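During data preparation, a discrete fold description was generated, as reproduced here:
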Amino acid sequence: MTGRRVLFLGIFVSILLTYAIWIGGSIPASIIKLPDQGLNWYYWKLPQPTFWSRTTAWGMYIGHQFSIWACILWAQRSQLKYKSALHPINYLMLAINGIFIALHFLQTYIWYDALAQDTSIWASQGAVVLLLVFVLILETPRRGLFFGNSVPFHQQFLQIIKLYHGYFFSFAAIYTFWYHPMEATVGHLIGFLYMFLLLLQSSLIFNRAHVNRWWTFTLEITVVLHSVIVSLMLGQSKWPTFLFGFFGILVLTQLHGLPVGIWTKRTIYAAFLVSVMVVYGLTERGLGRIYEVTYIPLIEFGLVGAIYLIFLIVLWTISRVPIKT
């Protein structure tokens, strides 16, 4: 079977799985939760965790995580080549992800609690942010970082990112997947749909569908929908910060990896600028806060710079260590 066919089938199955979460939403919704305690509080967890709620959540997460890591390691050591048809490892990874998705349904309905009980809400969000940052670095040779202009990253830096990105990406996706119980709020539904798509992407390693630019662009831009919906769900007025922050990265970087003409790009530039002015002018944020649209680009590009700086420091340190002969 071709990766392209599996990709479309996987997207359809991901939508069905999200629908299944919605159908079964009354079960986790019946769990009594503690009152919301502010920004650092994750609402959807048991007031009193049990031995089995913790053991099943962590045990299933660890089993899921190390199974996928083992598959990535095997695929790399086998020196697989990209092709249209699936490799046997792709079928195995699809099966592993499918099994653990089913287990997560059962774990939520029986024991409810997920990793949120024991880890910070910022760890889950930070993992996804770093995933997006590593994508920016990984795609730099193809689309540049600012308006298609290349960045002179050290080749060894890019090689390290390319070699190990799969391990971190799978961690970010699987950890976030097990961080949340399968609640049926709009934010959870969009979030789980996104996780299903990321797990699908991880299952298609060394397949041409894995590097299809429209598909990878879709994965990058889907975070806009999730962030805006969650902000609105929480009653926040700062949803334009997320909307235009992530769209700002689209304008600056992601757009330039797509096969679109200069006039299409200019139209998108103009639409972005007009939309920012209109939304900030007509909402309670006001034009006085229009600078907020720079927050997310500054964070992501700042992290790109910080990661590269760390690499350069490590490289310089290693070069200063005397070699014994």
Remarks:
- Residues 51-77 form the longest helix (27 residues).
- Residues 3-31+52-320 form one domain.
